[in-house]
Amino acid sequence: MAMKTLARIALPLALSASLAGCIRFGAEPPDALLTLTPTAAVAVGATASSADARSITITVPVVPQELAVARVPVRSSETAIAYLKDAQWVEAPNRLFARLLSDTITTRTGRVVLSLRQALSDPGARLGGELRHFGVDATTNEAVVTFDATLTRDGAARNFEKRRFEARVPMTAIDAPSAGIALNAAANQVAGEVADWVGR
After folding, report:
1. Cross-strand pairs, 128
2. Is the separation of the CB atoms in 89 and 21 below 8 Å?
């Protein structure tokens, strides 16, 4: 009787142990996640006031479906897209890019960048747009960042300006480390050009 009871207990334990090696809840994360770092970071302790400087509100860019994930798309032709192995952003790329724009515009123009909540009373200028490409072009071995920016300079949403910005940075290899470095450089180039367009 004791042997039968022991067998009834041991069998489920053995099955659960064997299944534990087979079942995975989601894909294993890569060893390191990618992020964007501004080439000109805002200095610690730096203060700015909208009483002394012009303000701007930056909204998170919209993205096509290929960029609605935290992975790095690779275009092998005009109609074929795959995702780079072991390359994953720490958060959605459009949010990373919006934060990079905020830091770059702050340091290069001296403008006060407002949050959407702060902008309810006085939005100043408004910058938004669509992040069209943020990945790798395998046909040219380049990292590509394309941003269709929309700018309202008066904050009253009466007059819009629209401009496309694009940067291409060569890659020595199509892998996660190379993609992270090249996309960071391309994103900083675009952010700098956008800041110059926005102006002081």
Report:
1. 150
2. no
Q: What is the CATH number of domain 33-198?
A: 3.40.50.10610
Asked whether residue 9 carries a pLDDT value surpassing 70, the answer given is no
C-alpha 59/C-alpha 74 separation (Å) is: 26
Q: Is 137 helix (H, G, I), strand (E, B) or coil?
A: strand
- DSSP for residue 41: P
Give the domain ranges of the chain.
33-198
pLDDT in tens, 46-97: 655 554 568 889 999 999 999 999 999 999 988 899 999 999 999 999 999 9
Q: Which residues pair with 75 in a beta bridge?
A: 81, 137
Helix axes 93-109, 176-198, angle to 10 degrees: 40
Cβ proximity of 144 and 179 under 8 Å:
no
How is residue 59 written in tokens?
A: 């909204």
Model pLDDT for residues 35-48, shown as the tens digit of each residue:
999 997 766 656 55
Under a CB-based contact definition with an 8 Å cutoff, are residues 194 and 146 in contact? no
CB 66 within 8 A of CB 73: yes
Hey, which bits of 20-152 come out as E strands? 55-58, 71-75, 81-88, 112-114, 125-137, 142-152
Exposure of 124 by Cβ count < 10 A (0-12 exposed, 13-18 middle, 19+ buried)? buried
